[in-house]
């Protein structure tokens, strides 16, 4: 109700009106005395701690449930991989199918309950579930469904000797994929505030179900790559290594042999996209789990926009690297395994290409970090589950390639014989470590910075001086963080808007003060350290070119290992030093994280590009 219609004025409004009528300058009033019976007084600290205990317990219970599901599934995967007695592929597929069906039931219940209460106001996390991320996961999901269709065709071709689970699993997986993409498009930004304990179990079940599906895809793809690697080892002269193929081909004939062969080969070329889909879905669901019961402010962050102007140099260099990558991968896959000479030339070609690209990426990352160091700005340290997960994943998944690189360096230093191509492996391994180190620093600092336009406004409006001979009337109460100046007093044409409500009032400003204030408004302290060619919009263009170049380069470096171009398998030196099985275990464990790092870094760099 309006105060003019007879409603009693609130104490805050009364205080505001009393100060507006005074002739003195506006000042912040003393804090309101809090009484135990006041409805606006905060709850006691002890009670607040008690209220948060069930929430922490629910989080711990759900996380332990998810970890147990994941560990049990991993052990079943391992048992099938090593041909454990009494464990077959049907048992594994039955478990994965049951987990997907349980997740489908939970998503159906959540979507139904949300639609029934769609008129209620729901909090949203503006950082989670970005549009480009949902678009990427949709693209990977479409390819995953195509992969499922190929598996169904493979089952039909070998239906005489394959169990029914081989046909039920791809159908269930396709339905699960469609439902999950729909769920993420509509609810990835939700901040759940009701049925929190139940929702925690449902979301964490979904997270680890997708992680198990990711592990299943990684295992199938690794088995295929390992079989091809064993067949190629003999051409490099490593005949002393036992080459026993791990063959899971059905023991019956396919009705159209040519079609079945094409389907079986096509399946493994689509596995990289399926692997990326599952890990992206699990990360989005994990952010949803972390947001359950979270208290956020109502401040809406500006939407990111894709700007293509001024990035010709970065895009041209990145597209050149992408085209070179495709050519190198095609030549590598054609030459490797044909003969010892061709295999060695293919390895040397790959190392030279990778060394050049990694040096350019490292230089670009260092240039971006240098620009940030010259442009002194405070970073945004507010709590943000999506941003924290991005940073943790960058460092965590980079450790996979670091493990392989340090293994290669140690093998080169300890080996007795050194083929010519191994000396190219040494700088390549060192550059892999350094480039990811530098790139992680650049990305983490970039995602912790506010968008350029917003940070300029905040820096400019840090101090507001009001001096026209007579002081202007202002509201008496202090603005909280995130307030807007328009809510307090009408803004004149010469008075800049207050971004954070950080208002400071001075009396009796003289001409010297006015000149000093005009100069402080006209220039900002941080760009003064930047060179002339990086002032203003030029700095944004340089950073945008760096982000575009690194984005395309990371996609380029994702392609070779994802599609079978893996020199860690093919050079053979590490297998002699460490032994065949230990080194294969290291590569099979670390390679999936190395592949995911490139795709995740590309996604983070795209976000950085949109924010600059």
From TrEMBL:
Q: Membrane topology type, per the record?
A: Multi-pass membrane protein
Q: Where is this region: Disordered?
A: 1-49, 488-525
Catalytic activity field: H(+)(in) = H(+)(out)
Q: Kindly indicate where the leader peptide sits in this chain.
A: none
Residue ranges spanning the membrane: these are: 65-86, 92-111, 132-156, 268-289, 310-334, 346-372, 546-564, 576-597
Pfam families this protein is in? Otopetrin (PF03189)
InterPro entries linked: Otopetrin
Segments of skewed composition (Basic and acidic residues) = 504-519
Q: Where is the composition biased (Pro residues)?
A: 27-42
Q: Where is the composition biased (Low complexity)?
A: 7-26
| Gene Ontology CC terms, in alphabetical order | plasma membrane
Q: Which GO terms describe its biological process?
A: cellular response to insulin stimulus; detection of gravity; inner ear morphogenesis; negative regulation of type II interferon-mediated signaling pathway
GO molecular-function annotation terms?
A: proton channel activity
Q: Where in the cell is it found?
A: Cell membrane
Keywords, A to Z?
Cell membrane, Hydrogen ion transport, Ion channel, Ion transport, Membrane, Transmembrane, Transmembrane helix, Transport
Give the family, as the similarity comment puts it. Answer: Belongs to the otopetrin family.
What is this protein's record name? Otopetrin 1
> What is the phylogenetic placement of the source species in the record?
Eukaryota, Metazoa, Chordata, Craniata, Vertebrata
């Amino acid at each position: 109700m309006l105060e003019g219609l007879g409603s009693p004025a609130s104490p805050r409004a009364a205080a505001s009106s009393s100060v507006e009528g005074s002739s003195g300058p506006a000042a912040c009033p003393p804090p309101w005395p809090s009484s135990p019976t006041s409805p606006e007084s905060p709850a006691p600290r002890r009670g607040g701690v008690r209220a948060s205990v069930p929430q922490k317990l629910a989080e711990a219970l759900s996380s332990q449930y998810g970890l147990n599901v994941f560990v049990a599934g991993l052990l079943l995967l391992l048992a099938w991989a090593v041909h454990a007695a009494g464990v077959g592929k049907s048992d594994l597929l039955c478990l994965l199918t049951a987990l997907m069906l349980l997740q489908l039931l939970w998503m159906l219940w959540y979507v139904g309950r949300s639609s029934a209460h769609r008129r209620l106001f729901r909090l949203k996390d503006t950082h989670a579930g970005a549009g480009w991320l949902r678009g990427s996961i949709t693209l990977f999901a479409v390819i995953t469904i195509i992969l499922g269709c190929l598996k169904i065709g493979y089952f039909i071709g070998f239906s005489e000797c394959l169990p029914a689970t081989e046909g039920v699993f791809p159908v269930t997986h396709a339905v699960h994929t469609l439902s999950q993409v729909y769920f993420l498009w509509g609810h990835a930004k939700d901040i759940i505030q009701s049925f929190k304990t139940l929702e925690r179990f449902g979301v964490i079940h979904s997270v680890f179900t997708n992680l198990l599906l990711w592990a299943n895809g990684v295992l199938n793809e690794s088995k295929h790559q390992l079989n091809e690697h064993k067949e190629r080892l003999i051409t490099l002269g490593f005949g002393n290594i036992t080459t026993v193929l791990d063959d899971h081909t059905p023991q019956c004939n396919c009705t159209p042999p040519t079609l079945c062969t094409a389907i079986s080969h096509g399946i493994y070329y689509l596995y990289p996209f399926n692997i990326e889909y599952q890990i992206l879905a699990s990360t989005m669901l994990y952010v949803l789990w972390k947001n359950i019961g979270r208290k956020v402010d109502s401040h809406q962050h500006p939407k990111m926009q894709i700007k293509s102007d001024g990035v010709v140099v970065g895009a041209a260099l990145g597209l050149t690297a992408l085209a070179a990558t495709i050519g190198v991968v095609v030549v590598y896959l054609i030459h490797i395994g044909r003969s010892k000479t061709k295999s060695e030339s293919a390895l040397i070609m790959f190392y030279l290409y990778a060394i050049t690209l990694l040096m350019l990426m490292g230089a670009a990352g260092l240039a971006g970090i240098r620009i940030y160091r010259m442009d002194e700005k405070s970073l945004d340290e507010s709590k943000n589950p999506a941003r924290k997960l991005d940073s943790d994943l960058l460092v965590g998944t980079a450790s996979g390639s670091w493990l392989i690189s340090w293994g290669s360096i140690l093998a080169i230093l300890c080996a007795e014989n050194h083929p010519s191509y191994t000396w190219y492996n040494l700088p390549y391994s060192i550059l892999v470590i350094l480039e990811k180190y530098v790139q992680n620093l650049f990305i983490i600092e970039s995602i912790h910075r506010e968008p350029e336009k917003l940070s300029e406004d905040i820096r400019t409006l840090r101090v507001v001086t009001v001096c026209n001979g007579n002081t202007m009337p202002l509201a008496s109460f202090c603005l909280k963080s995130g307030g807007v100046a328009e809510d307090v007093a009408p803004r004149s044409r010469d008075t800049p808007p207050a971004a954070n409500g950080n208002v400071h009032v001075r009396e009796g400003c003289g001409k010297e003060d006015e000149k000093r204030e005009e100069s402080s408004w006209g220039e900002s302290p941080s760009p003064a350290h930047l060179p002339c060619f990086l002032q203003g919009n030029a700095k944004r263009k340089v950073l945008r070119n760096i982000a575009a170049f690194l984005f395309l380069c990371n996609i380029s470096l994702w392609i070779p290992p994802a599609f079978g171009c893996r020199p860690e398998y093919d050079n053979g030196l590490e297998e002699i030093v460490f032994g065949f099985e230990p080194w294969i275990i290291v590569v099979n464990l670390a390679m999936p994280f190395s592949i995911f790092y490139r795709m995740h870094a590309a996604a983070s760099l795209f976000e950085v590009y949109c924010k600059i």
